[in-house]
Amino acid sequence: MLVKSCLFTASFVLAISLATTAQASVTCAGKQHDIEEQIRYAQLHGNANQIAGLQKALQESREHCTDQALQAELQKHVSEKERKVGERQRELADAQASGKPGKIAKKQQRLEEAQQSCARCAVGNRRLG
């Protein structure tokens, strides 16, 4: 059970770390700094499982992280967000063709959300480049 908890914590930390990387620290050094900050926070609160997972994430980052790989990952995220915007634009056009105001409003809202998400991702990507 403890092993499952540690593995879950490590996976969760890596997911958070990737999300943080996309928006705040877009270099390996920044990513590692963020993990170190999380370790200090976990130590303050005595969370041994979280500390273990974070230390593993930090070790993995130090061994395998490259700024070029982060750049490629961020570009992949931007491309996915751009694809989603295109999909939402097509959905809105279909809704407009149907002439149903409720459907149009719903699709317009989804398009705006996709555009905002794309813009946030692109800003994070420009910081590294």
Overview of the molecule:
- This protein has 129 residues and is mainly alpha-helical.
- 90% of the residues lie in helices and 0% in strands.
- It is built from five helices and no strands.
- Helix 1 crosses helix 3, helix 2 runs antiparallel to helix 3 and helix 4 runs antiparallel to helix 5.
- The longest helix has 32 residues.
- The termini are far apart.
Helix content: over 70%
Shape field: elongated
User: How many angstroms separate the termini?
Assistant: 43 Å
- Unreliable runs: 1-24
Radius of gyration: 19 Å
Based on DSSP secondary structure assignment, what is the total number of beta strands?
0
Structural class label: mainly alpha
Work out the helix count.
5
Order of helix and strand elements from N to C terminus: HHHHH
Major sheet: size, sense and barrel closure? none
Strand content: under 5%
Would you tell me the overall average pLDDT?
A: 82
What are the SSEs and their pairings?
Layout: H1 2-23, H2 28-44, H3 48-64, H4 67-98, H5 101-128
Helix pairs in contact: 1-2, 1-3, 2-3, 4-5
